[in-house]
Design goal:
The structure is a homodimer. In chain A, strand 1 and strand 2 form a beta hairpin. The longest helix of chain A has 13 residues. In chain A, 35% of the residues lie in helices and 22% in strands. Chain A has two domains: 81 residues, Winged helix-like DNA-binding domain superfamily/Winged helix DNA-binding domain (Arc Repressor Mutant, subunit A); 49 residues, 2-Layer Sandwich (Dna Ligase, domain 1), CATH 3.30.1490. Chain A has a four-stranded mixed sheet with strand order 4-3-6-5. Chain A has a two-stranded antiparallel sheet with strand order 1-2. The radius of gyration of chain A is 16 Å and the shape is globular. The first copy, chain A, is of the alpha+beta class. At the A-B interface, strand 5 and strand 6 of A face strand 5 and strand 6 of B. The structure holds manganese (II) ion (2 copies) and zinc ion (ZN) (2 copies). Chain A binds a DNA duplex through helix 4.
Chain lengths: 144, 144
DNA sequence: TCTAAATTTGTAACTATTACAGATTTATAG
DNA sequence: CTATAAATCTGTAATAGTTACAAATTTAGA
């Protein structure tokens, strides 16, 4: 549903540089993971997946990297899950659905597009997140 | 914007009983606070506001009560804030705006109504939350 | 009034996140 | 190619929100 991003080191490096982020090995690795998996991971998921390949990696580095990428608007911080924050590459605007059974988070797109809305009741809008929860397609199937 | 609920003990008690919740003094107090303030509070805000009137109150009771009211669909759990969960009485469907400067959460209503959407991409939808973030009206004014 | 069930309470445990200082790596100037 | 400074990364400790749990209290039913 969301277009596949080129996850070559060169492209990931460029994405960082374009946004003013120095492309360290750790930063490239984190962003590459987000692009490749597109699974809205937590800090811990990212850490556990990368540490086998980067044995010296620190959880703090993952936290620092995600904070930096978030500030530079390379990624967005999803508050859809109630126990930890999730991260997503900023691509074309889309919404999210979380399954209450398997906890997976899916990209979805509702018909209406409010991504252009700049203010409401005099409040200046900078970010919009539309979150849905329920039972995902797979889990529905398995229940029968 | 959202209609004022009757916050008399009698009415709050009825709201609980209708949803199958035994109306203990603590439960009535918590729900009354939510209805009266309509400020999307955290557990801690609720606790700090009630404990002067209920000196024996335990934080755990506030957690337990909110969990129970959430399960019985008396209140909804908002994941808009990134550090703690916020709670809201379930009234007419509406959306939320959080100010990044003062952190206040406002009730808002976007034009489009998707509250009737029952499924998307085959996933069964049970809850929808639309979250906006930016700078609120007051904070915008104070910046000038 | 006695007994059992439900509710509340306080403490301990757990987990996500942040603070921070020291170690390492990278960039810059001589 | 050094020497030095700046940036980045790392590991540990501290913080904060939440949950687990058992004991105490309250409430409901016999
Ligand atoms: Mn996404
Ligand atoms: Mn609200
Ligand atoms: Zn599922
Ligand atoms: Zn504000």
């Amino acid at each position: 549903m969301v277009k596949n991003e080129n996850t070559s080191t060169e492209n990931v490096k460029n994405l960082l540089v374009e946004k003013g982020v120095k492309p360290s090995f750790q930063r490239i690795s984190v962003l590459k993971y987000l692009l490749r998996e597109n699974n809205h991971p937590s800090v811990d998921t990212i850490y556990k997946n990368l540490v086998p390949y980067i044995p010296t990696l620190s959880r703090t580095t993952v936290y620092n990297t995600l904070k930096l990428l978030s500030e530079k608007e390379v990624i967005s911080t999803l508050t859809i899950n109630d126990t930890d924050l999730r991260y997503d590459f900023i691509n074309e605007p889309h919404d999210h659905f979380q399954c209450k059974t398997c906890n997976a988070i899916f990209d979805v797109k509702v018909g209406v597009d409010i991504s252009g809305l700049k203010s409401i009741d005099g409040h200046q809008i900078q970010e919009i997140q539309l979150h849905m929860k329920g039972v995902c397609r797979q889990c529905l199937k398995e229940k029968n």
